[in-house]
Sequence to fold (100 residues):
Amino acid sequence: MPFLLEYKVFGLVQGVSFRDFTQRKARELSLRGWVKNDRAGHVEGTAVGQKQAIETFKSHLAQGPRLAKVDEVRVGREEEVSPEEAQKILGSRFGGFEVR
Fold:
């Protein structure tokens, strides 16, 4: 069963290639989903994949790229989901990992 992670990253995470870093790490781990900047200066996203890959991905989010300073990674949903629910959550991004 796929595992879902909804996250928001706080700190110096915009203007430091955080979204590109996130996409690269997600693709390396075969995760699907998306990442985007929000208006408050944070980065948020959703990832779906194997549980161990999600755990590794969370470690990457906490570290960030070289120029970032991550203060906190706040997790929303983190749970196993059916393939149908994963497809519903991801919509058109079901097959890859997108920077918005």
Q: What stands out?
A: The chain has three helices and five strands.
